[in-house]
Amino acid sequence: MRASLIQIAVNEDETAEARRLRAASLVRAQAGADLVVLPELWTTGAFAFEEFAARAEPLEGPTYEAMAKAASEAGVWLHAGSFPERDERGALYNTSLVFSPSGDLAAAYRKIHRFGFDKGEAVLMSAGDTLVTVALPGTTLGVATCYDLRFPELFRALVDAGAETLVVPAGWPERRRAHWTLLARARAVENQAFVLACGTAGTHAGMPQAGHSIVVDPWGEVLAEAGSGEEVLTVEFDPAEVGRTRERFPALKDRVLGLDRPAPRA
Ligand SMILES: O=C(O)CCC(=O)C(=O)O
């Protein structure tokens, strides 16, 4: 399987519309890949909070239209990263879209863990509540977004639902880059799965982005890692390696579920 992660730069000197056109052309240039991945909130920037409401779109808005067309023109499975979605009740979500090579929507995932504690995305957006997996020829994707990477129980639930390739679009800041690469490897090792983690480059709302998109195999080896600037990271991998790893080193079979919790101290 050939996957291309488009680590697009998100800077304020480019409009969302111009970036959408550029992203579509970058996707079309990946014709021949099986799977193409874009990062989180690449139209607005993950830290441009005031843009979320101003730039929010219905599910089938301009980003959906442009990415559906780009997927079908390139003939690839496309995880189109995420955009600020406004639903019919006016609530905002950080929503990712996955398209089939014919440009049909295969899945939409609303980010479950919102980042910011008591500000930013955590207060501006609503949380998703549904796990999403997508069956591709040869592998099943499990999708998560950025801050979700810090929550191993979400990834374990995706594995329980059949995921073998975990796809994580992000807008991860440079100042915590060490966590990004460490957590991507941890999620791969503990779940014996491929991790495809696609970040952004550039600086928006004063927040330099980490870049360093990374692809990790089920043994935790880094197959490819981008630098800090805009880059397309392309990697070939054999999805059957997940089954071989789980067979050879069957740690997932040794899980102990339903442990009693210690009684709270009086
Ligand atoms: O967890 C982190 O350090 C970064 C998370 C983040 O930037 C996000 O989810 O938008």
From TrEMBL:
Keywords: Hydrolase. It holds the Pfam family CN_hydrolase. One of its GO terms (molecular function) is hydrolase activity. It comes from the Bacteria. InterPro entries: C-N_Hydrolase (IPR003010), C-N_Hydrolase_sf (IPR036526), UPF0012_CS (IPR001110). Residues 1-239 form the CN hydrolase domain. The keyword Hydrolase applies. PANTHER family: DEAMINATED GLUTATHIONE AMIDASE (PTHR23088:SF27), NITRILASE-RELATED (PTHR23088). Belongs to the carbon-nitrogen hydrolase superfamily. NIT1/NIT2 family. This is Carbon-nitrogen family hydrolase. The lineage of its organism: Bacteria, Bacillati, Actinomycetota, Actinomycetes, Kitasatosporales.
